[in-house]
What we know:
By secondary structure, the chain is α/β, with parallel strands linked by helices. It is built from 17 helices and twelve strands. Strands 2-4-5-7-6 form a five-stranded mixed beta sheet. It has a five-stranded parallel beta sheet with strand order 9-8-10-11-12, with helices on both faces. A two-stranded antiparallel sheet has the order 1-3.
Amino acid sequence: MFAFQVKSRSPGPSDSGPSHAVYIVAGMAYPLWHLLAPAGARDPWWVWWAIGSAFVVAVVVNRSVAPRGLGPNVLAACTALVTLHLLALASLNDMLPFYAVGSALAVVTASFSIRSRRVLLVFAGLVAATSAISYALAPDPRKLAYWGGMLPVMALAYWRLSAQLASAEWSRRHERELEARVQARTAELEEANRRLRRAAEEQEHLEEQLRLAQTMEALGRLAGGVAHEFNNLLTTIQLYAQLLDHQLASGSPLREEVERIQNAVSEAATLTEQLVDFGRGGDMEADVLDLNEVVRNASSMLALLVGEAVELTCRLDDTLPPIWADRGQLERILVNLALNARQAMPAGGTLVIETEATSGRAIDAWGMTRASDEEEWARLAVIDTGVGMDEQTRARAFDPFFSRSEGGSGLGLSVVYSIVTQAGGAVRAVSEPEKGACLELAWPRTWRRPHEGVTSASSSDGARAEERVLLVEDHPKVGEALAQVLREKGYEVLEAANVPDALEIAQGTEAKIDLVVSDVVMPGASGIELLERIAAYRPDARVLLISAYVDHPSLAGRRIPPGVPLLRKPFDAAELLARVRDVLDAPPPRCG
């Protein structure tokens, strides 16, 4: 019945304690305790009922105003009141054991129930003051024995409470340290998770780049194969159309129809040329070039292409390193990009072409190639103020036929991508809707030296003194057309459909062979192999190679040696005769 508890708002051990029902039972036990009091004891009954009621009131107050922290204070006051009452009763009843033991139990119970050292010190002071006053009013050795024995008990209670508070503080500190370690570990895991996500995104980006490269390579091979066959057909149509034109009278109405055929062939040849550029490597006729010079030479033509509504500005870096590229391809790149920019600015705007010497580190950031930090690169940027591109369009800007403008082939940017990347360069599109576009191209510095091919020109394209030509062409219709054009100009033509036939003719014919005109891509052995082997039979023969596509898979990556003349299909009769004459008039090359 003396199990009192004083709660405090100070930090300490567990605040869990008896429920409110326990306090009510403890409070109502006081009247019952009064019934057990010895006869004649000075113990007013109303005090017990008042204390019991006070406990009930304390419970009600605790339930109603506990959020404001008043309940624990009321309970503490009731506990102190009970203890002081029992101390007073023991003193008033001459330390009757009934009251002395009860008051001692109250002090012990209250001391070990208090959860605050400050409250415990206040309670000990009240007990000591009450005992001292009682002894001063009526000195009695028994009072000293009883209440003097309470001091070690309260000291023990204070030590126990201090140990509990210290343990609680250590537990809280340990919990804080544990929480800090958990937070730090969580932060590390979150950072690791972010790194993993970034790595996954980068991996996904690289895989997308690989898929794009593989797609472009496959499309390039397909385009090259189609262009090879198509150019043979265009060459045949072109040559026969010119032969027909020469046979028609000057006033014949059919001349206009023949001219339309030739114009159609020229338009088809332009598309085929783009297919060839898309499918072949970037070093077919490559040389050491100054990118600034190419831009300067093309600027006048580009200004005409974009029109007066577009202001063209060139910003060129004089420190630009030389690059290894095809001049014609670079010019076609500039034309394609200029036309795209003009279409993006229907109401006019500004077109800037700039060059810049940059580092491999900057190009490596594009994600297109692995360039070393020390490597020098030449960057070309074509910047317009047009409508720009959204993210989806920009991601597929270099896909063939993804975006086809009116009058275009749909291969413009894909051809640019193929030419630059196959030459070891990098391409990037930077654009936002309504903020224009910037197409960036970059090539690594080259340390090669420029070479010179056969570039001489002749004033006549006719044969001289029964000049003999060995024509090697596997396509029958193309071979017939070529032979007819050459014979009409006075050349004696020996025809072969493949390399073995050509070598047999070269070995078995005693007459001089002045020129070998050979296709590059043929079944079995190629024109490049013929170039290497014919020197054993005709060391003085000159060689002219013709081809629609020199990166055909059958060539196994072999390239035409530098300095060997090459005529690309499709070509017309005038181009063929002029090139034949140039080669015949030039010093004979060293074959083999």
